Amino acid sequence: MMTPLLFVGGFLLAALVQLYLPCWPIFGGIKPPVLLSLVLYHALKGSPKTTIWAVAFAVLLQDGLDLNRFGPALLGFPTVALLAHRIQSRIFVDLLLTQMIFGALSAFVAMSVAIVVYTLTGQRPFSFSQNMLRLIGSLVLGMGTFPALMWFSNCVTTVRINKRRRRWL
Amino acid sequence: MFRNKKIIYGAVVAILLIVTFVVPPSFSSRGKHLVCDGVAPMERTASSLGQRISGAGMALRGFGGLAERNRDLSLELVRVQTKLSQLRDIEADNARLRRAFEFREATPHYMIPCNVISRNISGWWHSVRIGKGLTEGIRKNHAVISPDGLVGKTKEVSQHTSEVLLVCDPACKISAKIKRGNIFGLLHGAGTDLRGRPIARLDFIDKDLEIKKGDEVVTSGLTNDDGVSPKGVHIGYVIKAEKDASGLYQYAEVAPSATVSLLDYVFVVTRKNREVKP
After folding, report:
1. Highest mean pLDDT among B93-107, B189-203, B259-273
2. What is the pLDDT of residues A143-159, one digit of tens each?
3. Which of A60, A68, A72 sits opposite B35 (nearest CB)?
4. A67 neighbourhood in chain B, CB within 8 Å
5. Which of A23, A27, A38, A67 is most worth mutating to test chain B (most B CB atoms within 10 A of its CB)?
6. Does the predicted interface ipTM exceed a cut of 0.95?
7. Higher pLDDT, B158 or B30
8. What are phi and psi for residue B38, nearest 5 degrees?
């Protein structure tokens, strides 16, 4: 069971990590999708209520801290969360391959939505080559970020369980 | 029950689409400023922690106190460079004054030293966030400089933070000129190359004027009403010059000299008659 403090703290930490991570021009200059991975984590492991809160927090941080107006994350994150939550019971999330596939696909979906929003609103100039780089980059970065986040969350869970066990003993 | 769920989903999708495509940016900017100001203390803590770690690393290597001295020297260097460029302009103006009657004294500029507290969160924009905002006298469209030259300009300013759009961002447009021959043009960002080096483009240059590779590009000092941009601040050097697709103008690709990394400090140029300690 996740406490509200851990829940909010997790999102703030994820935002901070994403802010300080470097971006690589080879991937179209985009950052590893840490906040999106956290949304995906809650969508695949949490209840509908938790997922909604997770989407709300992530959208607020991602779009709120960016220069664009609310939109790319506002549409992209709920789409990913909705799709992931629907198949939650049908997949085994703890398998590394599943995590890699879901991380890559979710980042790809969110990036596609962001490209559409940026192009339609005219906030960023459309460049086919740059956007292709971003889409490929999102696949690679998502594939790496989500398993890393799952590993980290497993570590946190193990520490908390051990702490509770020690208290009982 | 099933129908109710469909209606709720439809309403939520409609609201999200309206917020994304219909609501004007000014409507959401207040909310964004709240988020920025809310996260700023955490960013500042992380930034100062990073500075302390880097300072401790330097102290271990025998460079203790170097960071502070470097910061002071950078501020001094920027002051001297600005003064020098102002003096050069004054010299040129004096020559012109001999032939003219009217002379308007240039508005003095002041610099506010700021720490870079974070980068852009998504990577879609070439921007950094600095730890000072409206409270310290920073406004939108103020030039941001470093000892290496022009960094960019302020885009979004909240109470305690400001988002600086870097020179290489396509949305950053600055009036600039090529120093040799006073050739004016409009500079805008062109992103980065695959090695991550920033590129900018100087557009609308008279097609008959001669531009050479290596020519220095500086700010022209022209801004809109609310903007502040000092004259003669170094931006970078011309790396390529070509004819525009229309054939009416030529453009020059410029390599900006100032690059900003995390834990760096920059100076916001403002009209306000005060300087704030970093």
Report:
1. B189-203
2. 999 999 999 988 988 88
3. A60
4. 120, 124-125, 127, 155-156, 163, 165
5. A67
6. no
7. B158
8. -65, -40
Interval A19-26 mean pLDDT:
89
Domain ranges of chain A: 7-161
**CA nearest to A16 within chain B:** B43
Cβ contact A31–B121 (<8 Å): yes
Label residue B263 by pLDDT band (50, 70, 90).
Answer: low
pLDDT at residue B107 greater than cutoff 50: no
Residues 122-161 in B contacting A (C-alpha not used; CB under 8 Å): 122-127, 155-156
Helix (H) or strand (E) holding B14: helix B2-21
> Residue B58 and residue A124: Cα distance in Å, rounded?
40
Within an 8 Å CB–CB cutoff, is residue A122 touching chain B? no
CB contact under 8 A, A25 and B193: yes
Structurally, at CATH architecture level, domain A7-161 sits in Orthogonal Bundle (1.10)
> H-helix or E-strand containing A102?
helix A96-121
Shortest distance between the Cα of B116 and any Cα of chain A, in A, equals 11
Helix (H) or strand (E) segment spanning residue B112: strand B110-119
Q: Which two tokens stand for residue A40?
A: 């995906």
% of chain B at pLDDT higher than 90: 29
In order, the DSSP letters of B144-191 are EEETTEEEEEEEEE-SS-EEEEETTSTT-EEEEEETTTTEEEEEEEEE
Q: Which residue has the higher pLDDT, B92 or A92?
A: A92
**What domains does chain B contain, in order, with CATH numbers?**
32-278 (2.40.10.350)
